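Why do we care about 3D structure at all? Because function follows from shape, and shape follows, mostly, from sequence. That is the central idea of this module. The next example makes it concrete: a single protein chain, its amino acid sequence, and then its structure expressed as tokens.
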Amino acid sequence: MIEIYAGQSLLLYKPKPGQKDHCFVVLTEPCGEPAKVVIANFTSVTPTSDPTLVLDVGDHPYLKKLSAVNYGDAVVTEVGNLQALLAINKQFLLKNCDCPKTTLDKMRKGVLRSDRTPEGVKEYWRETQGQ
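And the structure:
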């Protein structure tokens, strides 16, 4: 089984019709039973993007242009679901593309700061991350 850990990058489809794949970063270590993690994705910067954290090329190996962390689509998901997906298609795992610690730390700080982070994600974050 493929290990899931904080800083890991995955290429996933957003759960909205017609959406293309996006780079999601695992923001937390697996926690609980069943084990869960928080994931959030990058998206192109537009006038309507979440301004909480904008990253540039070099902040993450996947980024090719100015990108925003899309906290509005952050989710709490079971590790088993991610592992099952990766077992079906390992191409969803972005190898040699882990999130640098400095960027991961910035992304983690934005979870509670963003007014777009879903309340369920914020509640889970407070319960598991002690913030």
